[in-house]
Amino acid sequence: xxxxxxxxxxxxxxxxxxxxxxxxxxxxxxxxxxxxxxxxxxxxxxxxxxxxxxxxxxxxxxxxxxxxxxxxxxxxxxxxxxxxxxxxxxxxxxxxxxxxxxxxxxxxxxxxxxxxxxxxxxxxxxxxxxxxxxxxxxxxxxxxxxxxxxxxxxxxxxxxxxxxxxxxxxxxxxxxxxxxxxxxxxxxxxxxxxxxxxxxxxxxxxxxxxx
Amino acid sequence: xxxxxxxxxxxxxxxxxxxxxxxxxxxxxxxxxxxxxxxxxxxxxxxxxxxxxxxxxxxxxxxxxxxxxxxxxxxxxxxxxxxxxxxxxxxxxxxxxxxxxxxxxxxxxxxxxxxxxxxxxxxxxxxxxxxxxxxxxxxxxxxxxxxxxxxxxxxxxxxxxxxxxxxxxxxxxxxxxxxxxxxxxxxxxxxxxxxxxxxxxxxxxxxxxxxxxxxxxxxxxxxxxxxxxxxxxxxxxxxxxxxxxxxxxxxxxxxxxxxxxxxxxxxxxxxxxxxxxxxxxxxxxxxxxxxxxxx
Lengths: 211, 295
What we know:
The complex is a heterodimer. Chain A is an all-alpha fold. Chain A is 73% helix and 0% strand. Chain A has eight helices and no strands. Mean pLDDT of chain A is 73; it is low at 77-87 and 111-118. Chain B has one helix spanning 3-18; strands spanning 20-39, 43-49, 53-61, 65-69, 78-86, 97-103, 107-120, 125-139, 143-148, 152-157, 161-166, 171-184, 189-203, 208-224, 229-233, 239-245, 250-252, 260-261, 268-274, 279-285, 290-294. The model of chain B is unreliable at 7-18 (pLDDT under 50). The interface between A and B is large, with 38 and 37 residues.
């Protein structure tokens, strides 16, 4: 038995986009491989359900009033802790994630010097949850990129490394400034923008290496 | 010129052509056909035409394989086609060129390592992906998505929806868009001529120049870490503007209002209103300078 059909092949088969010889090979494989045949059946079932969905959906009457009421309720009620951990523990966890992410970046991209984003600064609690979200995403993408690294041209790797270093430097500076001025909304927006850039760049790099 | 010399010159000129192969594929297609071109080529030119068919003409080095995933010549018009170009083994950088003709309403997806991509007149969707080289789009696609690392991007036209992302590639846009987003790490962003409703620009070190018009109730947001933000407003600009720097300066040549020191005495802040303030402009920079002027 040859190896299983890639998802892209199954999709192309379903969309009738495979060249004839590859289509014949894929169909022969499907006759012998229950796993791939089941995946194709699932794909067809999914597309069938998707096709049966209405082209447009309108929100139920009165739903906007409900949303507005909930927002108003959240704005008036006192803030409460959503996590059963202390702020200092949350800060430590965020810091550990930042250090871990930057270390992984360094290892994955083989950076010679540590990144400034890992500088130990204490950020406002409100930002920590957002940062953890970004860091988790970044870590996953770095792992993916590490696995696909050999498929990228050396020049592309160099470009990605340089861009990541630039972004990490910006993140480091913005984090340090936010630690000094935690209530600065513009700083929070700028830091979030830097993280979005990092996530976007890594996504692009993984898409390039996946092709 | 002597006849022998003429023959020698002709042979010399013909040598590179002998190392090339021309491949042509022509198929009937729906007006909104989806076409993918992926692989090893140095140039792709996509041109919209008024026919209900797709034609691909490729000049590729010998040893390069073109794998078309297209229906047979007598099949009904295709809804989708794929072309994959595989370079010769150990052939180095791609050198082939591809010319693609599609119905104007087609959606075209291209991907290459280092290439020049040129698209003219497509009103459907465009999804163009590149590492290095350049992308030049002319026309009014309904959707335009461009991802590039080093490659420069130039768009002349009015995409309904546009997203451009580069690492170090410069981005130049001449035209309009109701919904546009540009993200770059170090590329310079230059926008001129048209009218924008919703526009967001994010850069780390790249300079941003905006010399276009904000539509009524438009919204422009520019975030940069260290790139200069240069906003050149037209005489009739009507907007509310907030500019903030954490460590940079703000230079206002639009009116007499002067920036104030930022929070804790660092950086600068400026709020101003022009006209009846239809549009909203937010400029934020960490340590880059912000310049406001009239065109």
